[in-house]
Fold this sequence. Notes:
The protein is of the alpha/beta class. It has eleven helices and 13 strands.
Amino acid sequence: MxxxxxxxxxxxxxxxxxxxxxxxxxxxxxxxxxxxxxxxxQQRLRHFCEHTxxxxxxxxxxxxxxxxxxxxYPGSNFGNQCDGQVFVVDGEDTQLxxxxxxxxxxxxxxxxxxKTILLSLGGGTPDYKIExxxxxxxxxxxxxxAFGPKTEEWxxxxxxxxxxxxxxxxxxxxxxxxxxxxxxxxFYSDELTLLGYALMANRFRQRFQEDPSxxxxxxxxxxxxxxxxxxxxxxxxxxxxxxxxxxYNSDGCSARDWVNNxxxxxxxxxxxxxxxxxxxxxxxxxxxxxxxxxxxxxxPKFYLSPSEVKPLIGHFMKKYPDTFGGIMLWEATGSERxxxxxxxxxxxxxxILYSYGPPxxxxxxxxxxxxxxxxxxxxxxxxxxxxxxxxxxxxxxxxKPTTTEESxxxxxxKPTTTE
Length: 419
């Protein structure tokens, strides 16, 4: 019943709120992006959309690329959220999951709530690589057909998320980022000068133009060192909307370095601002990426407590009000299990953002549901900016993942795909 009330409230305002929510992501400095899909024993996507203050949720991962994937298809891994069934091409089992019914059900719920759902490519696993420029362009075309708007042209080719359309694509490329120019003719002339993942990102931009009814986003999650070995070319040559810099797991440029010594030149946020200002989209938003728990970091020292995060955010939001976009976290389940003062780590981060951000509008009120591991919630009514939609607190619990007789090939909790 709680969800029915929530759904009714959303429908009543969706005509205005959803469109204004998506539009303001590009100007807000208080956005919270949290990766989901690789948490151990993670709850459903809808749980995090209904019960948290997350704004942008990259779903991870497409962790195998067509050059390595069986049958020439990419491979996917979303932890415990799929039943192990895969698409079959020419009698060969691929590694692209087809039985992700819970995600299929949950994406529209999240989008009605104003959440931006991205599909993330890559991750920490070493198993993906694009071999040529041709592969990059064709891979982008495949993902657009499989996860973008459903078209007659795509026919009965794979649609892992059914009729759902993601809001964009995220590049979490952590190795094998260099490959050659496009050996193709008949494509846009600017592709002839692009290298690496810039080719693929540029191809996405071209395909986005085919659907003017919806705003699509591109994001990148580079390491904090500059230049980033994998994504420098793409960020420098193609228009991205969000840059989720991983300011953790790297000594010398991490957020921990700034916390230990704010006067140190090691923390690279200033340099990343320069990269963005010299890119095709100087208005792209820069996020401070952090681990959401001690376990989410490679080493405990890279985790920051909320009290350590607060001055960091205050300093850089004030210093770069036009470029600062918010906080990115790895990842949702770690955040929920890391309860601080009765709130998840993510909700703590959102409150920090609001404490320094612009005044909250008074036209739309939203309830922040503070979830705990015992399923009790402690709602706190606040007035959110237009990057969120009106929600009512709910205490529903996540449903158990569906299974089938073929679920013995489940991809539950594959730790190698973490960042």
